[in-house]
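Sequence only, no structure available. Ideas?
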Amino acid sequence: MAKLFGFAAALAAAAFGAATAATESSASVEDTCVVVDFETATSDFTALNNIVTIIKASSSLLSSYIDDPLVLEDQTLTEVDFSLLGIDFTLTPTIDSLNVTGLTTLSPKQINVTGSNTLDLGTDFTGDVSVA
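Reply:
I predicted one. Tokens follow.
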């Protein structure tokens, strides 16, 4: 699953030119951050939607990036601090065992620009997903 998100992040970075900004060693983060108007980046979203079409057409492509079943064991997640009735608590979530099958039935939807700074993202599943 992490490979899929990494793959998607790499595609998004390439589409918006973030990869070239990251190579500029003299620029600070504040210098390289710019507001992107999604409504003017139509060619970028056309390219991303073409990639979505390819992924949907080739069922074996997605399975090369996603392990099915996805099995996680003995994973400790980041602590969560919260307060309840004036008492501070720290929660440490731990996954003893998680088995997810059917992730290769994931079918991404087309990316729709709904405003200058908003997107509509989604996915469908073409089969059953099971979590145990």
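Confidence is low (pLDDT under 50) at residues 18-23.
Hope that gets you unstuck.
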